[in-house]
Amino acid sequence: MTALTHRFQESQSFWARSLRGILGSPKATIALAICLILIATAIFGPSLVPQNPYDLAAIDFFDARLPPMSNSMSGTTYWLGTDGQGRDMFSAMVYGLRTSMGVGLFSGVIALAVGTALGLTAAYYGGRIDTLIMRLVDLMLGFPTILVALMLLALLGQGVWKVVLALVIVQWAQFARAVRAAALIERGKEYVEAAASLGLSKPRILFGHMLPNCLPPIIVIGTLQVANAISAEATLSFLGIGLPITEPSLGLLIANGYQTLLSGQYWISVYPGLLLLALVFSINIVGDRLREVLNPRLSER
Amino acid sequence: MTIFIIRRFSQSLFVVFLTSLLVFVGVYAIGNPVDILIPADASFAEREAAIRALGLDRSLVAQYGTFLVNALHGDFGRSFVFNQPAISLIFQRLPATLELAFVALTIALMLGIPLGLIAGLKPRSVTDETIMTGSILGFSLPNFWQGMMLIMIFSVWLGWLPSSGRGETGEIFGIATSLASWDGLAHLILPATNLALFQLSLVIRLTRTGVRETMPLDFIKFARAKGLSERRIISVHVMKNILIPIVTVVGMEFGSLIAFAVVTETIFAWPGIGKLLIDSITVLDRPVVVAYLLVVVTMFIFINLAVDIVYSMLDPRIRLSETQ
Q1: Cβ of B304 and A142 within 8 Å?
Q2: In CATH, what number does B88-314 get?
Q3: Which residues lie below 8 Å from residue A26, measured CB to CB, with a gap of 6+?
Q4: Confidence tier at A73 by pLDDT (50, 70, 90)
């Protein structure tokens, strides 16, 4: 019971500290607001937009490549124009936002879970297990993200789950390294000794007691990694080796506009790109601020 | 030192070996090599002959042995599309990529170090905030979209620079390069800028951190007490200390420049190995894909090895902590 209340207070003050830190900087506050608006748009947007861009009955091929603010054959206005198939860009972007965010968040959360578990294990057991895990981490971090992802997808082929898998493989090591470093400091503290002398099981000490105290670096890296994952997915999809055309993310929408860019039809690639930039930029600003507030010692990169 | 180098070298060889295993498993075990290595329009008899010629009827271990031996001889098979050895295709395209990466790195250093210095010397000022927000923007800009915007602004709207291709190459010291002619330079500016922006942000952050860590140290105070000008303190004493981490990180980043060149080359139709890779993936030209992956990974591992060795020469603590 006491451990529970202690943990509760600890986590509460941690979240409060994070929120205070963000609200203390106008720049980060605006960025957080943008993030929240975009998340809400990704969740509720697709049911509110004027058109389902992937319902063949709803799109009209005669409306293809209309500039922003032009009227459709049936009288509605395309605020951001239409693409090569006559889809409303605005609606397509809201759907794309959902896909991009979904893939980014999902792969980020899995990488976080895998990396945290391995990092805690390495720190707690030490010895051979530690060496083995950390060698693997060094190996992974030695390669640039995009090279590993390219390599995996070149071998595996396209697909949502393959992209998620590739993103998890390139991201887990970041979490493992940070969690291990934080857990090594925690391991030497008295509460861990106390928990061990009470006869608690190792998993319980690891996940129930040490993990909550390792949260700050996990949250900071998690935020930045989600931004990275979204951007990596967009890049891979743009190159044509990421998501298939049936699951269009923002990267794929931008790729669609690549062909028409030279003929001056800028809106097909500019607007989805701006949305992608707003998303990644605001997540990065929030993450950067969190790092300053929660963990000033964390290496700047 | 020798032991350190030998150990690092054997570790590197091991990683190269692992990569070859991964690529082999990816191509030969997960995918069906018959579909991958034999053109789809081959007749049944041709298929049978090819399966025997490629040794695909033998066990996986035996096949891996052959693959490894061939790879060590630089033989990755012939490209279906170009009908020439995959490895020679890679080496034909490699100089264009290296040139692009080299120019991008130069741009990143020439702009990044001064900007980082300015930001680091006046922390929390408006200039610092602006430069640092700019560097987050540089990290956040999707590289491919940024390239398209460069084309849109400078090629389509303003019409100042060409949007694709490598342009005319000339020779400097017997090496074909775009730096030798105006046409080549004009073609190089946009792709190199596009590739440089991410590294530029990185260099700014590294320099700023270095400056902020170095400025409060005693030897700087001593230099001030000695009456040295601020200019000299920064350009000699501070720079010397922050250059080591910058050089190391940038050295390692050269590999990611080559990887990131895939994106830039695709957008600007730059005839390097990155564009070759994407084209080969699209038309399922697997021998070229395999050759690219192995050559680039090997190159990358040996760049890291070289950086490690140089770093351990500059800072002996690294090598001492390893041998403990």
Answers
A1: yes
A2: 1.10.3720.10
A3: none
A4: low
